[in-house]
UniProtKB/TrEMBL annotation:
Pfam families: ABC_tran (PF00005). This is Sugar ABC transporter ATP-binding protein. Residues 11-247, 257-501 form the ABC transporter domain. One of its GO terms (molecular function) is ATP binding. Keywords: ATP-binding, Cell membrane, Membrane, Nucleotide-binding, Repeat, Sugar transport, Translocase, Transport. Signal peptide: none annotated.
Amino acid sequence: MASPEPGRPLLAVRSVAKSFGAVSAVRDVSFPLYGGEVHALVGENGAGKSTIVKMLAGLHRPDSGTIELDGQPVELHSPADALAAGIAVIYQEPTLFPDLSVAENIFMGRQPLRSGRRIDRRAMNARAAAYFTQLGVAIDPDRPARGLSIADQQIVEIAKALSLDARVIVMDEPTAALTGVEVKRLFAVAESLRAGGAALLFISHRFEEITALCRRVTIMRDGAHVSTDPIDELTVDEMVRRMVGRPLDTLFPKHDVVPGDVVLEVEGLTRAGVFADVSFQVRAGEIVALAGLVGAGRSEVVQAVFGVDPRDSGEVRVDGKSLRGGSPAAAMRAGVALVPEDRRQQGLVLDASIERNITSTRLGSLAKLGLLVGGAERRFARDWAARLQTKYSHLTDPVGRLSGGNQQKVVLAKWLSTQPRVLIVDEPTRGIDVGTKAEVHRLLSDLAADGVAIVMVSSELPEVLGMADRVLVMREGELVAELPRAEATEQTVMFAATGQGAAA
C-alpha cells in the first residue's frame, strides 16, 4: 500500500450531516485521515460515531457535505462502492459464512480459477496464508470459519481488506469482546497496517488503548465535531471533558454506607467442570465485586445464583430462605434481579418497543382482568426511562435503535422496576461511554445507599476498585481471595487472579 502525498490526507470527511426524520444524527463533522496513522474517533454513545462509520461503509449517504479520497470527492452508494474505493470496516462482531473455509470467506466471489473455471483452492489457500504471514498471525486458511474466536474472525476480515487493497481501515470497537492477549495481537496487526501506509480509524471507549495506539484523536458530542488534535496534546481528563460537555465530578461516586443484615448467602455452590465450592455473603447496602480473568467462572456463578444455569450442589439463600435452583422465576419472587453481560442477546428483545422491554418484568401487575392496559404501560415505561435519563425518540421505537448506553439503561430500568432486594449486574458498563458509565455507577451507589445488596461482575479493575466494598477474586472456577476495600489494589487483585501471590 503506497503512502499518499505528504501533507494531504488519504481520506477526508468534509462538513458531513445526516438526519433520520426529526433526529439529527451528525451535524457538520469534518476530520482528516492520513496514511501511516491511526486516528481515534471518540464520543459518548449517541454522539454520531456509528453514523460516520456507516457513511464510510456505504450504508448511509450524507445529506450534505462530502467524503474525499486522495483529494477527490467520492460517492459511496453501497458497501461494494466503499470496498471498491479501498475502504474496509472491521466490526466488533464480524459476520463470516460459518460453513465456508477461512480462505473462501476472504476471497468470496473473487476466488482464483484454474482452466475450466474450477476454483484453484491451492492458490487461494496460499494467498490467504501469505496475508496471515504479513499480519503476523497463524490461522489455517483451510479450516471452517465456524468456531473461530471473535479475535480470529476480525483477523480474517482484515485479511479480506488486504486482499481488496484497502487503504482506509475502520475498526469499530474491535477490542470490546477480546482478551488482553488478543488485544495485544490486534494492536500488532494494526501497527503492521499503519507501517504499510494504511489510514486506520479506531473507535473505542478505552482511553488506555487510544493513547497507546493512536496519533490523532477526533472528539464528537451530540452529533457535532468538537475537536481534532494530536493525542499527545490532550490528557484523558480533557478528552472526557470534551466528550461529555461538562466537568465529570467523579467516575466512581461511591457513597460510604454501613452494611446492614445479610441478604444473600451463597454456600458451597458447585457446577462440575465450571466452578467449585463457592461461598460468600452480601449485606444490605453493600457492593461486592467478583473479579478475575476471563474464563474464571464469575458469570457462571451469578447465573447459577439467579437460576439461569443449573448447579450440582450448594445452597443460595435470600433473607435466610433457601432458593430453589434452576428457577429464575423463584429468584425473581425472592427479590433477586440479574442484569446479564450480553444485553443484546440476553437482556433485551431488540425488535420489541422500548416500553415493552422496560415493562416486561411487570406485565402482570400492569394488567387488569388479564388484559394489558396500554396507558398504564406507557406511563410506567416513561417514568422509569426518565429516572434513568434514557435518551430516545419514541417509546414505541424498537429498543435495537438505541445506542449501547441507552440500551443498558433500558435493561436496568426493566429490573430496577421490580424493586429488588438483591441486584446482580454482570459487566454493567461494558461498551458504553464514560459519561454513561458515571451515571450507571451513581445509580448503583444510590441503590446501595437505599439498602439494596449488589453483586457486580466486572473485568475493569478501576471499576472494581472504585465501586466495591469487598472484592472476591476467582481463578479457574474457585474463589481464591476476599479483599476489603482498603486492601484491594490492582496488584493484590491481579496477584490473586493469576495465582502469583497470596491474598488474605
